[in-house]
Design brief:
Blueprint (H helix, E strand, L loop, with lengths): L8 H19 L5 H8 L3 H7 L3 H12 L1 H4 L4 H4 L1 H16 L2 H13 L4 H28 L8 H21 L7 H18 L22
Helix pairs in contact: 1-2, 1-4, 1-8, 2-3, 4-9, 7-11, 8-9, 9-10, 10-11
Amino acid sequence: MANLDTRPTSDRQQRVLQAACALFLRDGYRVSMGAVAREAGVSKQTVYAHFENKDTLFHAAVEQLVLPLHATLTPESRGLSNTLIALARAHQTYVMDQANVALGRMLIAEAPRFPAAARTFFRTAIDTVASRLADCMAEAMDHGTMRREDPEVAAELFLSMLHGLEGDRRLFGMHARGQKAQDDWARHAVTVFMHAYDILPDGTALTTKKPGIGTEFS
């Protein structure tokens, strides 16, 4: 077993995190630290050296899983309209992914037994994204590129539009839309939201002009 732990610390930690992500997605919170160690090819002692307990490891794994969503929330470099488009794409790719939906389904079922894990998932994967999106929208309102409303309400509305009934269909194992239909839904959600809040596609100052149905999203 000693030979398993000869890699640099950063490499071992990343292997543990990748193994944890894969196992949590497949088996839910019931995964043991020993199973993570075996999957990562390291000792159990190495796992505990990097992550104090399973709660800490689960939190880090969820943060890793939602990185693609957080990466889209950079309006200072792309403008709010492009941020919404990027977030919509990431939502369809990652949040609606079968493995992520399965993890959410398992955590809902296990919430009475593992309430801390359920709270961690909600706060890290959902609440934090909504909070960061609200900050992006508040900044756009300050810059005059989005009509001033409650940014937290606006962020929740947009995320709810992306989720739609399709998220519930997948959660309950019903027949899901195909990829093209999902892309069309995300495109329409972005267009309707931009129209409702007077967000211009080019990110210019607020005017009476509203974005049309042809808002770019490809």
